[in-house]
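Tokens as discussed.
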């Protein structure tokens, strides 16, 4: 089946080349930027423009992240890994200048990490030194399952995926696969007196109050599917977006444990 698709693609490429030659019969190829004949290229997904648009839709209003992500992508070597050693240069490439350039760029990076498009590790160059880029198709699929992606945009992405012959949105994501054992929970610091809420698939909500001197635990028997968690302190930001190394929304487990370290 894959061989048949390759044959069809070759036919399409040949016909497009014939059409281009008929439209520009006197064209010299030296004027074109062709990957096969020049360096400095990178593999990117064909649906990349739409992926970037959906990233901006998921980001807070007035804080687009697509240009920042595009620069991250262009700095990889097809290995989904990047090293940041010149943050001011990165900020400039992402479109930020002036005294607040690095701070604004760092804010966009944190937004991308909060949406789970990337993961960040600190190093000798500062708190943002090493970058891991997750599969954006899988991340967007999880956000769609959580009701955060515009239906029209997601349907457009599904259509584009079909056009390019990919199956990224059909394959199960990491968060949909049931773990064989209970994984080590991720610790999150919360203020004493705060109320932590968790919502399950179906709308049920559970909560508990943080008390100084004790850990804040949820032991959830059965097969719950948690869709979100947040603090009731009015900050308006999610408390947990990652648990046990996996994206929080829609993660079924035979037992689910969240541990939060309480602080003043």
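Sequence:
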């Amino acid at each position: 089946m894959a061989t048949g698709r390759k044959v069809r693609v070759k036919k399409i490429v040949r016909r497009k080349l014939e059409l281009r030659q008929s439209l520009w019969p006197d064209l010299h190829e030296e004027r074109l930027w062709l990957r096969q004949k020049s360096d400095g290229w990178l593999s990117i997904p064909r649906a990349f423009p739409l992926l970037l648009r959906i990233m901006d839709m998921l980001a807070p209003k007035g804080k687009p992240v697509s240009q920042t992500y595009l620069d991250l992508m262009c700095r990889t070597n097809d290995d989904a890994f990047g090293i940041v050693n010149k943050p001011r240069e990165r900020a400039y490439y992402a479109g930020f200048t002036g005294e607040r350039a690095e701070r604004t760029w760092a804010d966009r990076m944190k937004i991308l990490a909060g949406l789970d498009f990337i993961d960040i590790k600190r190093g000798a160059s500062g708190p943002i030194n090493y970058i891991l880029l997750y599969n954006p198709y899988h991340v967007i699929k999880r956000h769609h399952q959580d009701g955060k992606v515009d239906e029209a945009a997601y349907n457009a992405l599904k259509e584009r995926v079909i056009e390019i012959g990919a199956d990224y949105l059909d394959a199960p994501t990491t968060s949909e696969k049931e773990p064989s054992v209970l994984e080590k929970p991720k610790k999150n610091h919360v203020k004493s007196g705060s109320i932590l809420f968790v919502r399950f698939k179906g709308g049920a909500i559970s909560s508990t109050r943080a008390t100084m001197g004790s850990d804040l635990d949820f032991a959830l028997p059965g097969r719950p599917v948690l869709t979100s968690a947040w603090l009731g302190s009015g900050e308006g930001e999610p408390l947990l977006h990652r648990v046990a190394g996996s994206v929080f929304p829609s993660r079924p487990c035979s037992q689910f444990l969240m541990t939060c370290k309480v602080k003043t």
